[in-house]
Amino acid sequence: MADNDISATERRKRMNLSGKHLLVTGGAGFIGSNFILYLMREYDNLCITNLDKLTYAGNLENLRGVENDPRYRFVLGDVCDRTLLQSLFAEKQIDLVVHFAAESHVDRSIRDAGAFVQTNIGGTLSLLDAAMNAWKLDGGYRADVKFLQVSTDEVYGSLGKTGVFTERSPLDPHSPYAASKAGADMVVKAYHDTHGLPVCITRCSNNYGPYQFPEKLIPLMFTNCLRKKPLPVYGDGLQVRDWLYAEDHCRAIERVLLDGRAGEVYNIGGRNERTNLQIVKTIIETVRRLHDPSVSEALITHVADRKGHDRRYAIDASKIERELGWKPLVPFEEGMERTIRWYLEHEDWLAHIVSGAYEEYYRQMYGESAS
Ligand code: NAD
Ligand code: TYD
Questions:
Q1: What is the CATH number of the domain that holds 156?
Q2: Is 177 annotated as catalytic?
Q3: Spatial distance between the Cα atoms of 57 and 59, rounded to a whole number of angstroms
Q4: Is the CB of 239 inside a 6 Å radius of any atom of ligand 2?
Q5: Which atom of ligand 2 lies nearest, measured to the CA of 221?
Q6: pTM reported for the whole predicted model
Q7: 305 lies in a domain?
Q8: Which residue range is the domain that position 109 belongs to?
């Protein structure tokens, strides 16, 4: 392609991320793996180290397509392991940290919050210290470095029927998961305010798309539709979430890496509010149309509500739209269709997960087998 054929956005991408080395934590999880696959498609000339502990949620199958790519390497390890972190920063000149690694499931945090505090707060602190020590120069930091904390709208708590979360909404987390993410965000902000570390925090709404672990609403309901098992809707099912296709989240993170201002928070969301019942009905309708006409709404089963269940989330993403020119590209109907098709085409992926430890979790959580 001749140089003058390159769009302004393309040129900026080549300028700023080309030649960079990214440390991505939690890259074997749902959004982290989507992010690595996305960046490696978009850029020829960047390197990624993926540090992941491979908890139950980490899955190297997600990264099969890049595992032999010389631009990519996987490191098995814990974000709480300070010695390991120090050696990773010493071995390679890491320019950017994108911190996804976390315990991420609200229901698990209700049962046992320990790992959430340890990984989400303790792990973030270890990573901040390692980045700060590696990037420090006399009187400042290396140019063009950035620590991006991938956070969630759940730190803002719950909304009533109206209103949206802005970056200025107070932090009011309810679940242990949300509290641990809010705690981590505060430590990240403190490292900016106290030590001048160049950080950005992104707070995204609920994601959906390929590679999401089946404990979460959309893949869980899809899996149960395939197996004609009850679809366990918590309480009245009228709780509202603001859904965003994972690749749109990845593009937002890319924008913040490129142009986000240090010390700033950016909300990310799709302006796509749906009740849980609407989501479940969309999944049923899509599975009926694409795969099995005998699946029906009769499978919907209302079960006991989640403790402390947040009623409604909705994101005002106007700051990232205005300042960084991001907007979601994948409409909800198209994203759901792509997602359901992906799961239908990757039954093996699902089958490998819906066994072993997940089977035990499902039995404890829902009182029956997952398969
Ligand atoms: P996920 O549970 O699918 O993946 C988490 C990954 O982190 C896994 O690969 C796991 O092995 C790894 N991990 C866990 N503990 C670790 C540790 N101590 N050291 C190293 N690796 C560890 O999560 P996800 O849904 O992909 O979420 C990724 C990030 O995005 C999280 O920080 C989450 O809070 C945030 N987020 C998620 C959503 C969503 O809808 N899923 C929305 C907004 C923000
Ligand atoms: P989830 O995917 O766990 O995401 P989060 O709690 O982080 O928003 O849940 C999304 C919504 O779906 C939430 O309101 C809880 C509800 N839900 C059910 O009704 N049944 C289920 O089996 C699950 C996993 C979730």
A1: 3.40.50.720
A2: yes
A3: 6
A4: yes
A5: 22
A6: 0.97
A7: no
A8: 3-213+243-274+311-331
